[in-house]
Design brief:
Layout lengths: L2 E2 H11 L12 E4 L5 E2 L1 E5 L4 H10 L3 E4 L16 H11 L3 E4 L2 H5 L4 H9 L2 E10 L2 E9 L3 H10 L13 E9 L16 E13 L3 H11 L7 E6 L2 E17 L1 H11 L6 E2 L7 E10 L4 H6 L4 E5 L14 E4 L2 H5 L2 H12 L4 E4 L11
Parallel strand pairs: 4-5, 4-17, 5-6, 14-15, 15-16
Antiparallel strand pairs: 1-3, 2-6, 7-12, 8-10, 8-11, 9-10, 12-14, 13-16
Helix pairs in contact: 1-11, 6-7
Length: about 375
Amino acid sequence: MPVRIKHIASILEEFAPLSYQESYDNAGLQVGNPNAEVNSALVCIDVTEAIVDEAITLGAGLIISHHPLIFGGLKRLTGATFVERTVMKAITNNIAIYSSHTNLDSVSKGVNAMICQKLGLQNTRVLSPAKGELSKLVTYVPLTHADIVREVIFEAGAGCIGNYDCCSYNIEGYGTFRGNDSSTPFVGKKGELHKETEIRLEVILPSVIQSKVVKAMLKTHPYEEVAYDLIKLENQYYGAGAGMIGELPTPSKEIEFLQNVKKTFGCQAIKHSPLRGKEISRVAVCGGSGSHLIKNALHQGADIFITGDIKYHDFFIAENQIVITDIGHYESENFTKDLFYDILTKKITNFAVHLTGINTNPITYL
């Protein structure tokens, strides 16, 4: 069944909001009309000319990639680079291109959660939680309507703290107001000062769903004019951030664990700092380039840190306290294709999603 590209984009962005992407990134729809309809999508890590050819063969009108094809602006389309040729081929064949990159890395159920799942890790949490991504909503509701307004706010996604939901703070007091001649007060009379018993209701919510929560509250709140505050918080938000850390169900010998990692992620080679001669129990991971999280992994007691693109000097940071492991950028993110597949097929049951059969890793090993 044909599906509009903007509907597919909304599903992906509900899972991984674009606001979570890094400043250098370029996630979102890169090529194509958001109102166009497509019959199927091809999911991949990188977009190349070969990927576009594969989409043409499959009849897929949309390519969904992890890495953006276009990172910076294109000043011309002459076919001088592979990026220009790929964009031109996609446009010529009416194929749209969408990317979900560092925003998919950042969400707690995203790329790093998939890595943890493949490694069988338990008790996982974000390694470096995001800051400045939470808000507090404070509103005042008449006692008679407090329960229904609170429930609607919860249903919109507010009130979640860690492993708990429906979290709120409530205190009873009274509010005063006087409506003018143009008012239509829910309680009280025009032109008369009214005192009403109210509940001060406070909830925490991710800032990305702020408009959704406020809209739901305003729709249900009985007052003609709703008083509410939105307060930006600096609390750590474990629903998003960089990397993840978790524990193995059973401790493993270092070499056995590394061999399992190599097999699981299809690595031809693994680079790592010297082994410590200790068992692996706590594991930290970061898909793609994660060297900036080495110290986070150290401070949280990880026995091993798995990522890609580790520089020579970064391996010295280990100092026999942790095993720093570079499995390759592509290899660490290869299961992202499966993540795209799961997200879309659960939301659109009668829409064809194809996993690419092309390995786009630009690195080969001798």
